[in-house]
Amino acid sequence: MSAVSPVSTVLSGDVRQATGRREGRVLILGSSLTIMGAVMIAPVLPKLGAEFGPVTAHADLLVPLAVTGPALAIAVCAPLAGWLADRVGRKALLVVATVLYALLGVMPALLGDLHAIVIVRLLFGAAEAAVMTCCSALIADYWHGSERLRYINRQMVIIGLVGALFFMLGGALGEYSWRLPFLLYLLPLLLVPAMLSVLWEPTRERPGAQAPGPERVALVPVVLGYLLIFGGMVLTFIAPVQVPVLLVQVGVTSSTLIGLCAGLSLLATLGGSLAWPLMRRTLKGAGTNAVLLLLFAAGLWLLNHAQSYREVALAMLIHGLGAGLLVPNVMAPVMQALTPRTRGRGLGGLTACMYLGQFVSPLVVAALVAWVGDLRHALQWLAVASVVAAMLWGMAAVARRRSTV
């Protein structure tokens, strides 16, 4: 029996490390597609309304649905996408969904009917559900422990960067035509060859490489994660949907400036994502939840009192920091609580709650506006609700720390 060369051992370790990095890059870029779903077209909502409002019945409802409709489709289709990912495999579903994402994403640029645009956007959301669920499931499959947390953090950082970039780019292109931002949805096609060549199906091609997991699903962290991501997304989606309305109220009508302001909120999520590892080590999960909810509350409270473009931008900066902490701090314990066989379905449920929160966010705000009288007072009540939730998580963090001691 021949001895193993130390050099070959080192080289094989380097190859595995390089392979992990390549897979990580592909999955992180694939995850960033999900933020492109709404951010690129939100700045052109006024132009969509101006073009289709005079000629389309109920355009005031259909135009916002072009932005929020994909979130509803994701909420409905994500559990099915998770089931398919567990049954037929993550890689194949991810590749097909990415192609459909690109083709359906660009179609509104070619359509001249608002009803057709809304229908296509709903189908686009179904493809987006599969992309996000498969990317998250593969991250949970490929890595575990501290390495998994590292890749979750990288995922959120890149999503923040890509979201800020494409929000501003969508606003700039929207100055010329509302159709131009939709052409950017063709870019994901460039990622398909890398998905085919780099990614592998853990349960079939490399069964020994699958990360270990618990034997049974821990229901409490999963349910708490679902509730928190739903409520957090209701607060998060105020930035792309409600901030343009507030900016118009303070005299800002340029789609470029609107895109820059909302893009600043998305860029601020980068700061929250970068701070998340340190904050989680220091305050643990429950304490970090309390902090992010307080940041949401502070941002909404400042937004309620904002009277200028700078004040709105400051409010969105603070609000975005909370949003940057939200997803990784929820996703990490949910991934840990799921078994390898249930990751697709469990993360599909998390994705459904995430986008259901996005979809109902304008409805929640509209209901509050009808109750309290105007948008600013509605934001004030949401800030109060966020403070109450932060206090509950803070008490849970203190109780857990005392029990540990």
From TrEMBL:
Membrane topology category: Multi-pass membrane protein
Name recorded for this polypeptide: MFS transporter
One MF annotation (Gene Ontology) recorded for this entry: transmembrane transporter activity
Alphabetical UniProt keywords: Cell membrane, Membrane, Transmembrane, Transmembrane helix
SUPFAM superfamilies, A to Z: MFS general substrate transporter
Lineage: Bacteria, Pseudomonadati, Pseudomonadota, Gammaproteobacteria, Pseudomonadales
Location(s), subcellular: Cell membrane
Domain of life, source organism: Bacteria
Pfam families assigned: MFS_1 (PF07690)
InterPro entries in the record: MFS, MFS_dom, MFS_Efflux_Transporters, MFS_trans_sf, Sugar_transporter_CS
Residue ranges annotated for the Major facilitator superfamily (MFS) profile domain, each copy included: 23-401
Stretches that traverse the bilayer: 26-45, 65-85, 92-111, 117-143, 155-174, 180-199, 219-243, 255-276, 288-306, 312-335, 347-372, 378-399
GO cellular component: plasma membrane
